[in-house]
Amino acid sequence: MKAKGLPYLIVGFLCVALLPLTCMPASASTGLQIKSVSMQLKETRPPIGNKEIRVYDIAVVLYNNDSSISDTISVFFRDPEPGLNSSMQLEPLNATLGSKETKTFTFSDWPTTLSGNFLINFSFRPSSHFTNVTVKNTGYYRYSFTIPTTKNTTSTPGFELLIVLSALAVLLLLRKTKTQR
Question: How many domains would you assign to the chain?
Fold first, then answer.
C-alpha cells in the first residue's frame, strides 16, 4: 500500500518548521536610532534670586541603520524644567538620512536653572503629518544629565576674618592710647 499522505505530511512539517523564521519581527536596530547625545556648557549667567542660570548647547546624532533612505525627520527634546512642559525642536528642522548615514541635530543656547540629576527626553518622528509613523521612523532616547549644584556667595573667603582682626587691632590701639593719656 502506497502512502498517499506522506508528501502532505512533509510539506506540512516544513511549513511548521519554517514559519517562525518568516514571522520574526524586524530587528530593533533597523531604521533610525539616536546614536549619541552631548550637552556642552556654553556660559553661566548672573543668578536671578538664588537660582543660577546655565546655558547649554545640545547635539544629537541620528543614525540611519537601514538600507534605504529615511523619511524626512525632525528631532525634539522635552524641557525637564518643572512647569514648562515644552517640546523644543532641534536644527535642522527637517532632514532625510541616506543609508548608513549620520546627521547631527543641534539646539543652541538652552537656558536652565536646574541642578542635580535629571532625565531629558529626546525623540524623533516624521516631519510631515501625512507620513505613516512606523518603528523605523519614530523613536525616543532618555539622556541622564547631571548639573553640579553650586552656591553663589557674595563674600570673599577670609575677608571677614581680616575685618574682625583689623577692628580688634584698632580697638586695642585706641585703648592703649587712652590709658597712656
Answer: 1
Strand segments, DSSP code E, in 66-114 are 73-78, 87-89, 102-112
> Closest by alpha carbon to 108, among 156, 28, 164, 40?
40
Write the pLDDT tens digit of every residue in 115-134: 889 899 999 999 998 999 99
Which residue in the block uniquely carries the three cell numbers 544629537?
60
72 in Cβ contact with 128 (< 8 Å): yes
With the C-alpha atoms ordered 104, 41, 53, 142, is the resulting torsion angle positive or negative?
Answer: positive
Which residue range is the domain that position 138 belongs to?
Answer: 27-147
pTM above 0.70, yes or no: no
Q: Is residue 95 part of a domain?
A: yes
For the purposes of burial, counting CB atoms within 10 Å of the CB of 139, is it exposed (0-12), middle (13-18) or buried (19 or more)? middle
CATH at 39: 2.60.40.1470
**CB under 8 Å to 108, separation ≥6 — which residues?**
42, 57, 58
Structural domain contains residue 14: no
Is residue 114 within 8 Å of 7, Cβ to Cβ?
Answer: no
